[in-house]
Amino acid sequence: MEAALVLASLFSAIASFAAALAAWKAYQVTKGQLRYDLYDRRMAVYNAIMSFVADCVRDGRVPEGAESRLLHSTREARFLFGEDVQNYITEMYDVARKWRKLDRTSSTRTQDGLEEDIKIGNWILKQASVVDDLFSPYLKFEEISGVNRE
Question: How far apart are CA 147 and CA 150, in angstroms?
C-alpha cells in the first residue's frame, strides 16, 4: 500500500512537470507569434514609406494624394516604433506637402522656387538609405526572434 502511494505521488509529480513544460512551450510559441506579428506590422510601415519615396523619385514630384496615403498607411507607427520613426514620418509628410505646393509653372517659377524644388528632390532621393538606417534596429532578426546571432 505504501509503494502504491509513493508511485501515485511520483506519477502526480511527473504529470505536473509535463503540464508545466507544455505551458512553457505554449508560452514560447505565443511569444514568437507576437514577435512575428509586430515584425509584420512594422514591415508594413517600412514598405509604405519606401513606396512613397519610390513614387516621388519615379515621378519627380509628389504624386496626387500620396501624402494622405502615407499618413494613412503609417498611422500605427506611433504604437510600433520609438519617437524617432514617428518624427521622421512627420518630417517626410511636411517635406512632401512643401514640395507639392511649389509652383512648377515655368512662366511663373522663380529662381528660389527652382532651387527649393531641386533641394527637396535631392532630399527625397537620399531617403531610401535614411529609411533603411532608421528602421534597421526595429527589423533586425534578433529583435523579432529573440535570438542573438553573435
Answer: 9
Each residue's pLDDT tens digit, 43-76: 999 999 999 999 999 999 999 999 999 999 999 9
In a domain, 14, yes or no: no
- Residue pair 93/67 in contact by the 8 Å Cβ criterion: yes
Which amino acid is it at 125? L
φ, ψ dihedrals at 105, nearest 5°: -80, 120
In a domain, 76, yes or no: yes
Alpha-carbon span 94 to 88, nearest angstrom? 10
Is 16 inside any structural domain?
no
Q: Work out how many domains the chain is built from and give that number.
A: 1
Using the predicted structure, report yes or no on whether residue 143 has a pLDDT greater than 70: no
The distance of Cα 9 from the centroid of its chain, to the nearest Å, equals: 51
The three-class DSSP label of residue 60 is: coil
Give me the residue label for grid cell 504529470: 15
Provide the residue range defining the domain that includes 70: 34-145
Listed residue (81, 88, 100) closest to 49, CA to CA: 88
